[in-house]
Write a structure and sequence with these properties.
It contains six helices and no strands. The chain is mainly α. Helix 1 packs antiparallel against helix 2, helix 2 packs antiparallel against helix 3 and helix 5 packs antiparallel against helix 6. The chain starts with a helix and ends with a helix.
Length: 171
């Protein structure tokens, strides 16, 4: 799956900061890859990179949206100080909807990254798996833990973040 040109394109989009386009492409790709599959088939090792990339892209999108909101709030505060008209009052309902979307994106990102983590953990713990594959899975597991730790930090869940970062260092 990671050799799929659409997957590679999504990785490039994410690297360029085009998170929304990457999220859409990965959502379509994951849907196509999991549609009609059993729960066990959806936990295949081949899908783990897609869960990771999709979750990471969603997390990046949520962070970018929060950053944009912070900038808007700063501009709004400056306008209030300079007595300019209050255009932002008209946008208040829209910002509440966007906050809900960001929370949903964060939750979905966490679920996707956790799914990838579970898949990689099972490979790391599988003693019948070849050593090189277990080593790769261990590395990817650490990446998942970093992302999950970052998401926990974003949500102010410091203790959970410490647990994730500790798991990362143990890998």
């Amino acid at each position: 799956m990671s050799a799929d040109p659409r997957f590679v394109a999504a990785q490039r989009l994410r690297a360029k900061g085009r998170h929304e386009a990457a999220v859409q492409l990965l959502a379509d790709l994951l849907l196509a890859a999991t549609e009609g599959k059993s729960e066990q088939e959806q936990m295949s090792f081949e899908l783990a990179p897609m869960y990771y990339e999709y979750g990471s892209s969603l997390a990046s999108l949520a962070r970018a949206s929060l950053s944009d909101e912070d900038e808007d709030e700063e501009r709004s505060a400056k306008r209030l100080k300079s007595s300019e008209p209050k255009e932002d009052e008209l946008k208040e309902d829209d910002s509440e909807e966007e906050e809900g979307d960001e929370e949903e994106d964060g939750l979905l990102a966490w679920k996707l990254l956790d799914q990838a983590r579970c898949i990689y953990e099972s490979k790391v713990e599988d003693e019948e798996c070849e050593a090189s594959l277990r080593k790769d899975a261990r590395s990817e597991l650490a990446r998942c833990c970093v992302q999950l730790g970052d998401l926990n930090c974003d949500g102010g869940q410091w203790c959970d973040a410490i647990v994730e970062y500790t798991i990362c260092f143990e890998q």
